[in-house]
Amino acid sequence: MAEKPRLKLPKEAKKGEIIEIKTLLPHVMESGQRKDKDGKTIPRKIINKFACEFNDKLVFVVDLEPAIAANPYLQFHAKVEESGRFKFSWTDDDGTVTTAEENITVS
Amino acid sequence: MRQLSRRDALALGVSGAALTLFGYEEHASAAAKEAADQIAKFTGGKTAEGGRISIELPEIAENGNTVPLSVSVDAPMTADNYVSEILVVADGNPNPGVATFHFSPISATAEASTRIRLATTQNIIAVAKTSKGDFYTGQKLVKVTIGGCGG
User: Cα–Cα distance between A63 and B97 in angstroms, integer?
Assistant: First the structure.
């Protein structure tokens, strides 16, 4: 099982506020360019997709390439009009999906 | 043996520099072509307008393994007119693709930050697409001291 993602976003916001969201997933992001000590190429293994939804509506999606550094970090914004739940997902090359959720109260 | 005159030394230095430059250019042009191909695929051949994209990167990246990158587009983010995608390519990496950011009107700002790997000194190019089918582009040169792709 993959490691636990780290999230940073406010727990409360005003209606219509634009909030900042920071996410990080501990992951090697093996580029497929490196060689091991026997000269064999280490196969690519990266997080190739990140998605953020708010109340089941897509907010922000990223297609990641091997040029994204290890422990992929993403920072973006969202405008919140109502209380609800953010869902985050990270898809690995091997098909594993790591998910996380966070609630926000909007007043 | 005759001592090297100042002029000879200078000539040697210049030809050496030219050789280095040529080698770099040749490698760079192959990667740059692939980057240009990816951009053409993204825009569908439409011309991208300059000026609205800002790319934030350090001028000199000491460690190419993790270079902070921010891209933002100065454009409306309303329900019927918003920046839907930003493609980022690096024209000197083994694979020029870096990331594609997909936004929605809920994003509120067409702005994203991440950390990237850079093999060598090169240009980072961003191309934005709006929901109306307009394209904007911008680029920035970043100098890399220690590359971050091989190993």
Answer: 10
Q: Is the dihedral of CA A74, B89, B99, A42 positive or negative?
A: negative
Residue A56: inside a domain: yes
ipTM: 0.96
Q: Give pTM, 2 decimals.
A: 0.87
Instruction: Name the residue range of residue A102's domain.
Output: 6-106
Whether residue B103 and residue A35 make contact (CB cut-off 8 A), yes or no, is: no
Whether A37 has its CB under 8 Å from any CB of chain B: the answer is no
Q: Does A104 touch chain B (CB under 8 A)?
A: no
CATH number at residue A25: 2.60.40.10
Judge whether A1 lies within some domain: no
- pLDDT tens digits for B23-58? 445 556 788 999 999 999 999 999 999 989 999 999
The CATH superfamily assigned to B6-146 is SoxY domain (2.60.40.2470)
Torsion sign across C-alpha atoms A19, B78, A99, A70? negative
Percent of chain B whose pLDDT exceeds 90: 72
